[in-house]
Write a structure and sequence with these properties.
It contains 15 helices and 2 strands. With about 400 residues, the protein is mostly helical. The protein folds into 2 domains: about 180 residues, MFS general substrate transporter like domains (Growth Hormone, Chain: A), CATH 1.20.1250; about 200 residues, MFS general substrate transporter like domains (Growth Hormone, Chain: A, Up-down Bundle), CATH 1.20.1250.20. It has a two-stranded antiparallel ribbon with strand order 1-2. The longest helix has about 40 residues. The protein is globular, with a radius of gyration of 20 Å. The mean pLDDT is about 90.
């Protein structure tokens, strides 16, 4: 059983971990476009660093964290160095000077997502029951950052988005120092040989021999293209449309994420994995259609509904997909299977998605604004294609929860 002290420590750790990410990442596209005059493809390059970080992260964890150093010490060092990168991102005067720091920062930050999980799991007797109660504070941290930017300080409307990096820098420094007080999480495999195929989860490639899982795997990569449009373009879109407190309003999507997370087990049990995944994909189609037809006048409800659909979009596809992967993998390759699907989606899928979103954004630019109606119909069409293909080719099956 975790003590109250450890529970509080882990909760604070999770809060700060995702507070830092939300502090600057949500408004990154707007910052680059408005304050550094970056093109769509340059903005895509900045967002692609997340995907590169996701690809590099398993090597940092597998080759360093699991073999030589305690997880909490590596977490502290990465966040302290990351704070320096965030500061230099804030004072960059053009994209050329900004890019090396965002690239370096995401290489440092993405491994910390696995580290905070490892530190948490190491203190739990039953992670399946205890982890969600700790992880929820990460979502609360993401929401808090959006509320501070959008509702409290109005940095978007004041054209002061460099302050988001100052806030993230401060939080990263605090978490970096705080990490050294966390419970010890010693290296797990320092006496074992490490193989690249184990780090990347290639052992789980055997799952792709089954048509059903192969269809899910391919759909997961393709649905990340619409997901990349959301992360890269939405805040810029809402600010161009003249929405007040866009970052704060976008944080409502994480509020819905918490609500639908509670509904997901009920939906899975009643309707099965296929219908759950289909609902998640349908939500992507509906969200971008709402964005295409919405405005800040009489149709502002469409924009808010599109934001609130985030819980369905994310939970019903990505979280249920993680559950499905866990079920299909069995006991022996659970970690490898989760590592492989993460590498495929947040690595390969998001990289492709960010690149496409950047090209589309540049193609439909009109003066200092964009033809958003045409832009949003493209990810809607991609999501509809994935939905239709999945509906035809994926056979329903029962999974144990």
């Amino acid at each position: 059983m975790m003590t109250t002290k450890i529970r509080v420590q882990l909760s604070v750790m999770m809060f700060l971990e995702f507070f830092i990410w939300s502090s600057w990442f949500v408004t990154l596209g707007t910052f680059l476009s408005q304050q550094l005059s970056a093109s769509g493809q340059e903005i895509a390059m900045a967002f692609e660093t997340q995907a590169i970080g996701a690809i590099v992260a398993p090597f940092i964890i597998g080759l360093i964290a699991d073999r030589f150093f305690s997880a909490q010490k590596i977490l502290g060092v990465l966040h302290l160095i990351g704070a320096v990168c965030l500061y230099f991102m804030s004072v960059s005067s053009n994209f050329e000077s900004f890019y090396p720091y965002v690239f370096g920062y995401m290489i440092l930050y993405m491994p910390t997502l696995a580290l905070v999980n490892s530190i948490s799991f190491n203190q739990m007797n039953d992670p399946s029951k205890e982890f969600a109660n700790i992880r929820v504070y990460g979502t609360i941290g993401w929401i808090a950052a959006g509320f501070i930017i959008g509702y409290l300080f109005h940095w978007e409307t004041k054209n002061l988005l460099e302050y988001t990096f100052y806030m993230a820098c401060l939080a990263s420094t605090i978490l970096g120092i705080f990490s050294f007080t966390l419970p010890d999480t010693p290296p797990q495999s320092h006496q074992q040989s490490i193989k690249i195929k184990d780090i990347l989860g290639f052992e789980a490639l055997a799952l792709l021999k089954e048509r059903n899982y192969a269809m899910f795997f391919l759909s997961s990569i393709l649905i990340c293209i619409p997901l990349a449009f959301y992360y890269q373009e939405t805040n810029k879109f809402l600010n161009e449309m003249g929405m007040e407190a866009a970052a704060g309003n976008m944080a409502l999507g994480q509020v819905s994420e918490i609500v639908f997370m509670l509904l997901l087990p009920v939906f899975l049990k009643r309707y099965g994995i296929k219908k759950t995944l289909l609902v998640g994909m349908l939500a992507w189609v509906l969200r971008y259609t709402l964005f295409a037809f919405g405005d800040t006048g009489s149709n502002v409800w469409m924009l808010f509904l599109g934001i609130l659909l985030h819980g369905v979009c994310y939970d019903f596809f990505f979280v249920s997909g993680q559950i499905y992967t866990d079920f299909k993998a069995g006991k022996n390759i659970k970690s490898a299977a989760q590592g492989l699907i993460t590498l495929a989606t947040y690595g390969l899928g998001m990289f492709i998605g960010f690149r496409i979103a950047g090209i589309i954004s540049d193609y439909y630019v009109l003066g200092e604004s964009h033809q958003w109606f045409k832009i949003w119909l493209i990810p809607a069409a991609i999501a509809a294609f994935v939905l239709f293909t999945f509906l035809i080719l994926f056979k329903n099956e029962k999974i144990k929860l």
